[in-house]
Amino acid sequence: MNIKIDGKYYKGNSGETLLELARRNKIDIPSLCHKKGFEGLGRCRLCLVEVKEGNRTKIVSSCVYPIKDGIEVLTSTERIVNMRKDIILLLLLRTPNNEYIKKLAREYDVEAPKRYVNIDEKEDCILCGLCVKACEKLGTSAISFVNRGTTKKISTPYDDASKDCIGCGACVEVCPTNAISLVDSDGKRTIWNRTFNLVKCSRCGKYYTTEEALSFIDDKLHMENQEHLCESCNKRLVADKFKDAFQNIF
Fold first, then answer.
1. pLDDT tens per residue, range 186-204
2. Kind of pairing, strands 72-74 and 2-5?
3. What is this structure's pTM?
4. What is the mean pLDDT of residues 3-30?
5. Domains, the chain, ranges and CATH?
6. Which end of the chain, N or C, is less packed with Cβ atoms under 10 Å?
7. Phi then psi for 73, rounded to 5 degrees?
8. Phi then psi for 52, rounded to 5 degrees?
């Protein structure tokens, strides 16, 4: 498929979204709720673009819009830029002290009126939903959206320690604004109002995951009695296996 983006033609693959095609070709379209490996959520709306199809022009969220042969995409028209500025302003009012949102505001020359900014506001969550999706994909669904309107937030049931949480930290990894608190100290991990015991890597001895997360993965992948390695040691092990394999070939 041939897709025209900002005056240039690009080859698209069946099943790709506009944002995926743009990212693959290093075309800058901002997004907060998109993460590689996740289907688009269309929540933050920062990835809005204009799409011309025949005689029609429409505004779409590029993270959920499937590419079509022959369409023309405009990523930074005056209309789109102004819409993004409005969205960033709302994010800035919600999270005025978040460094990532402040950086985004500077890039788009957005400044919130001081009379509307609460300098003591500690909120960092922008309600993108990535953490909820990550937890759901993992299969635990320990956190979710709760409440409505201005009190809407992401939390465990009743803000209590969730029996379904395994302390894996997947939610922290995908959060674009570092809104989720995870503290590792003295062999313990505290997250979502619950404290877990950490497990050491069997090679380097570094604490790297919780007992519950390890048990969950072992049960799901049937990895009982396997060596438990941190990410760094696991990468080294894989590299050593490739090295040995190539040495045997040559």
1. 999 999 999 999 999 999 9
2. parallel
3. 0.84
4. 95
5. 2-76 (3.10.20.740), 130-245 (no CATH)
6. C
7. -120, 135
8. -105, 120
